[in-house]
């Protein structure tokens, strides 16, 4: 019979099901419902224009974004591993979604969204969500900065209405003839929308700055413009769910894109949920595995309704918390408010200019850059900033996965460099009397000449890794070379393959010159790793103490014990005491 503890670790365990039922009961509590309804309305005011903007930017009808927000918002809100998470179309998914639409059409995006959702559900059931907590924070920050750069690069030509001749902002800047084709009235409408988004929240946080900005930008276009690129007609109800049509879709070419969409949506959602835990100061972490399952089901639902792919959105969730959300009802109600807007306000939404929607995405992109955070990081830790910039530039120049991979690699390298510093304490010993006093051994009856003792003692502190192993070559920096090089490994935490190879090289190098290498005080956890080079060491042994190494080399000027001292590190102390008591 399975234990309760084992069941509790599964995404939809009995314990989690009970918690979900309890959270659903809290949704309809009279004491919290008004606050959740108000918070949901505030989030809907942000989500409605953003959903429309993302859909149109990907080359889809505006209704696709609204439908996705409604359907996925309800599913994700009810089942999310975090009670404050808000699910919907997100800017991070736009570049990949637009690429899928360009290559496979709207039907291809719907298929990829369903497939991605299935993969997310599978990842949730194998408990892959826990690995999200291992991602370094600089990589997370680089992810958001990179998405901001992508938005700026792709949306500036749309604002200037030159996307047909200039595919991105880089091409826009490089060519000086772009000004002749700009739709300046649209630029003015977008600028007015952006200005309202930036300035109005400073006057009062509860002002729906996005809606006010859209109203002003739309009013300017309607008043001065005779014809402009607008959202267009919208349906007043949800379409019937249906399996996407595979006709004309190259599934083999679409599958890699679906895998990328699943990984990107999962990563973004998990990072958003982890950030929510930090934002709310929750004593218990959200269930990331359940969140994967919930986001997967939301994507399946969005795909069946022909919608845009979705993920957990930190911007909307934080807006919900700031607006006073108390339960997961706020997330669900935000989706219902979107449906009400689609049903009742479709004629008004249809007249919104594309330039104003593009301005919303540009403001979002600038905010994702987090310029203040980058400046503060420059002053605090330039190495951490380098991880952020490498991640962001990799995302902007290549793709999301290349950027995240480069950021993780650099963060790992910096971590190993920071925590893997190798320190050497080296002493060249030629005075036998000083060595005897240091070892507490009895002096010989006949004095020993100084040249009879030629010893190099080194204490290594830290791991011996591929990034620092070359420092050990200082021990054979000669000539002349010592007749015995003793390395104290008592403070070594780890030796990798490069470290083992270097130690073996040192032993062979000294052997050719008639000298010896001895390893003393080897920790038990390193004995197995160093065993392959034991045959190259002094008397094929790793000694427990410096005395044992000296006795084995015949360099200790006193009568030896019955056999050379060959003990593991944990017995070295007792051997030293015994040797001192019985010279």
From TrEMBL:
Subcellular location: Membrane
Keyword set, alphabetical order: Membrane, Transmembrane, Transmembrane helix
SUPFAM superfamilies, per the entry: SpoIIaa-like
GTP-binding among keywords: no
Domain of life assignment: Bacteria
Membrane-topology annotation of the record: Multi-pass membrane protein
CDD domains per the UniProt record, alphabetical: STAS_SulP_like_sulfate_transporter
Family matches, as InterPro entries: SLC26A/SulP_dom, SLC26A/SulP_fam, STAS_dom, STAS_dom_sf
UniProt protein name: SulP family inorganic anion transporter
């Amino acid at each position: 019979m399975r234990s309760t503890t084992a069941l509790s670790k599964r995404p939809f365990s009995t314990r989690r099901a009970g918690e979900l039922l309890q959270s659903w009961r809290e949704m309809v509590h009279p004491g919290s419902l008004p606050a959740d309804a108000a918070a949901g309305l505030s989030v809907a005011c942000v989500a409605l224009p953003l959903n429309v903007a993302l859909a149109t930017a990907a080359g889809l009808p505006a209704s696709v974004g609204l439908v996705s927000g409604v359907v996925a918002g309800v599913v994700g809100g009810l089942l999310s591993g975090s009670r404050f998470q808000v699910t919907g179309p997100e800017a991070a998914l736009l570049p990949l979604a637009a690429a899928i639409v360009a290559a496979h059409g709207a039907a291809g995006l719907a298929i990829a969204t369903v497939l991605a959702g299935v993969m997310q559900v599978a990842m949730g059931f194998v408990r892959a969500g826990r690995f999200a907590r291992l991602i370094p924070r600089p990589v997370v920050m680089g992810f958001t900065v990179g998405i901001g750069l992508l938005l700026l690069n792709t949306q500036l030509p749309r604002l200037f209405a030159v996307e047909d001749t200039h595919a991105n902002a880089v091409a826009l800047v490089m060519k000086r003839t772009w000004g002749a084709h700009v739709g300046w009235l649209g630029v003015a409408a977008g600028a007015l929308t952006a200005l309202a988004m930036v300035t109005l929240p400073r006057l009062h946080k509860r002002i729906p700055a996005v809606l006010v900005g859209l109203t002003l930008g739309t009013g300017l276009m309607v008043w001065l413009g005779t014809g402009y690129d607008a959202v267009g007609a919208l349906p007043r109800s949800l379409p019937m769910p249906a399996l996407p049509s595979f006709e004309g879709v190259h599934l083999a070419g679409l599958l890699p894109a679906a895998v990328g969409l699943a990984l990107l949506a999962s990563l973004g959602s998990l990072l958003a949920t982890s950030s929510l835990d930090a934002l709310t100061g929750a004593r218990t972490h959200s269930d990331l595995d359940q969140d994967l399952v919930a986001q997967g089901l939301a994507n399946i639902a969005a795909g069946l309704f022909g919608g845009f792919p979705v993920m957990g959105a930190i911007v909307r969730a934080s807006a919900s918390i700031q607006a006073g959300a108390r339960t997961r009802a706020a997330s669900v109600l935000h989706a219902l408010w979107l449906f009400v807007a689609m049903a009742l306000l479709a004629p008004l939404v249809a007249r919104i200019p594309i330039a104003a929607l593009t301005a919303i995405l540009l403001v979002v992109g600038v905010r994702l850059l987090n310029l203040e955070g980058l400046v503060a990081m420059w002053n605090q830790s330039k190495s951490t900033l380098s991880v952020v910039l490498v991640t962001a530039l990799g995302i902007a120049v290549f793709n999301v996965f290349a950027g995240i991979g480069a950021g993780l690699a650099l963060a790992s390298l910096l971590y190993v460099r920071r925590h893997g510093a190798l320190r050497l304490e080296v002493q060249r010993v030629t005075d036998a009397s000083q060595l005897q006093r240091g070892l507490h051994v009895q002096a010989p009856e006949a004095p020993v000449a100084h040249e009879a003792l030629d010893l190099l003692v080194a204490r290594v502190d830290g791991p011996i890794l591929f990034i620092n192993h070359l420092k050990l070559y200082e021990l054979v920096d000669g000539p002349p070379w010592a007749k015995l090089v003793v390395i104290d490994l008592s403070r070594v935490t780890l030796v990798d393959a490069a470290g083992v190879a270097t130690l073996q090289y040192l032993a062979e190098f000294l052997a050719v010159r008639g000298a010896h290498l001895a390893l003393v005080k080897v920790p038990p956890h390193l004995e197995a790793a160093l065993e392959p080079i034991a045959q190259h060491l002094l008397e094929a042994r790793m000694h427990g103490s410096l005395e044992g190494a000296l006795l084995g080399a015949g360099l200790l000027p006193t009568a030896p014990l019955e056999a050379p001292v060959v003990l593991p590190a944990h017995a070295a102390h007792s051997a030293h005491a015994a040797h001192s008591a019985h010279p």
